[in-house]
Amino acid sequence: MSVQGTILVLDGVSTNRIMLKVQLTAAWYHVVQGEKLEGLPALVRRTQPDLVLTAQTLPDGTAADVKKAIVKEPGLDDVPVVAIAAQNDRDARLRALKDGLDDVLTHPFKDTLLMARVRSLLRARAATQDLQVGNGSQPVGFAEPAQPIIRPSKSARVDILTHTARTGALWQKALDDQRQFDLNWHLQSNLRGVLSGSVPDAIVVELGSNPAGLNILADLRSRGVTRHTVLIGVLKDEDAGQASEALDRGADAVCLGGFCAQEILLRLENQIARKARLDQMRVSLKRGIAESWIDPLTGLHNRRYAMRALDQIARQSARTGRSFAIMLADLDHFKAINDGHGHASGDYVLTQAAERMQNALGSRGFVARIGGEEFMIGVPDVSPKQALNLAETVCDSICQSPFLLPDHGAQVDVTVSIGLKLSQVGFAPQDCAAKSVENLIKSADKALYAAKKAGRNQVSIRQSAA
């Protein structure tokens, strides 16, 4: 997305394009113009638009053709495409929504509504891009092909919020006849009914002269549980001002001119499908982030996590004046296990050793695998005696009983050497924490070398200053 946002305007009528350009450039958007479908792929690849506004009918195609062309372009499949239809042409609006257009504006329209819709759609695309890698459409952490279009689940929950019970019942019946969603209705005065149950996938809110509906939109969008819920407002008339405010307060779409079951169902289908895709991307992103901190073999944290955790522990130590400990643990003669019993057995020993060390440490700190058979342990808020006792407990957890190799039925004795370094009380100012941690790790490494040199299967403490 460009700094100011690039909007592509497609219309075979030059005066329509000029009018839109004037409106959009006045709001500091960068506007690119086109008049037909021919040459569109090259145009969008060159200009990389963040939003497309297209006439319902072009000299050589339709808005639906534009949407299909945009979706095919790598990295642009999430660009919103809005059709501009003739005034009071509800059939054209429904047709555009059925064709998968992201929204429909009727011409002529007021600047306020146009700008509000532009802002809303650009926010939506920015949210999508936050979940993507670079300019592609692939979720973070995965090299698999792009996922197919996700359609809304038949069991998607949709709540209806209306001013009166009669309106709620009528709307539910009109939508329930389609049997696409799990529908519930509530009075707007009973917002608790929406928030107390399972989180709805979408909420349809009745808007009107009473500001309650607009306030509810803002409230729902600000809450953590409903932050990603689809919000659709319904206005009885063509009040562009209220529609604009609804969009700015968080509505994903606004239906003008009163309740129309067909339009609402189409908007729900499109918006919930988009939400399902974004929900999947969020899950992928969280999984990718989690996996980037985890060692895949042992399930322990990895070096990347360990360094970040030590930095936080060091900063905490600087604030509290309490010392912390760093331990480096290395399984003794581990190469002999791989050579004598195979790498699969070696991997088994690593996973079991990791489990034993984690159990020995408990919740006092963290254990991370930072190399082949090398582990790092960080323990905050600990005295020298406590740190030594923990290190000896970890050491004993490895050597106290042999490791039974599942594929061989053989038992192997394993020991571990540990280098321990305790930070000094007062440690270091927070802005020097990273360098001080690095020095402590070097000291712990020297202590580990000393433990190896002294005969292994023991804890060595580095006494010199870090």
From TrEMBL:
PANTHER family: DIGUANYLATE CYCLASE DGCM-RELATED, REGULATORY COMPONENTS OF SENSORY TRANSDUCTION SYSTEM. Residues 322-464 form the GGDEF domain. Pfam families: GGDEF, Response_reg. This is diguanylate cyclase. It catalyses: 2 GTP = 3',3'-c-di-GMP + 2 diphosphate. Gene3D superfamilies: 3.30.70.270, 3.40.50.2300. Residues 6-122 form the Response regulatory domain. It comes from Ruegeria atlantica. Its EC number is 2.7.7.65. PROSITE patterns: GGDEF, RESPONSE_REGULATORY.
